[in-house]
Amino acid sequence: MEEGKANVRAVDRALDILLCFTTGTNLAMTEIAEKVGLHKSTVHRMLATLEDKGFVERDSASDRYHLGIRVWELSAHLSRTDDPGIIWQPEMERLRDKLGETVSIYVRDGMERIRIQAVQSNQPVRRVAPVGARLPLYAGASSKVLIAYADRDVQKQITGNPIWPAAIDREHYKSQLEEIVGQGYATSFEEREPGVAALSAPIFNRNGNLVAALSLSGPSSRLTLELMSEYAPSVIESARRMGTMLR
To answer: Domains (ranges, CATH) in the chain?
Structure first.
């Protein structure tokens, strides 16, 4: 193998190892090897390099790894003025205080949606939404928004993907997408998780392109379909405001 290609491959593997920590904060070397599909000896060498550079740290007592201080040093230099999660947080808090439920922001990544920001409800019984969580794209209000307002080609790729559940009728789902575009928001009632309901609206940038989905979620015993219909204008308005905040 040429030296240049070998170096690129090594970088690719190192990044795959770091990405393992998006789904776990304290991992054993064998767990990492399984996730990235590499031999344990290869992972051991790469972890040693990452540890030497400060990107991971090893707990000698448990022989498990977690992200190192170098990652946090890099994150401290992110441009806060261009980070939508930071820019939108005040509006999310305002919506949370107005409607009393958890507010989240989702973006699409392939066949998944990722929660990039969340403001938790202050109510004793609430929907807890951890930031960074990856969820399937075929269920939930925000998923339907991210698909409904995507390009037609993207919609076809998603609904035609082999991992699309056979139990979810594609034609019925497509008709739902048309309804969502018509009314400007989507709802879900215990679709992905029992006892949870959600309402979602699209966030567009100033060019009219979809950038994210704003979601309001809570216990289905409290966030009924009737109440979500009443809340929809407020969620749509907050999504509109968020869009105007983007450069």
So the answer is: 3-74 (1.10.10.10), 80-245 (3.30.450.40)
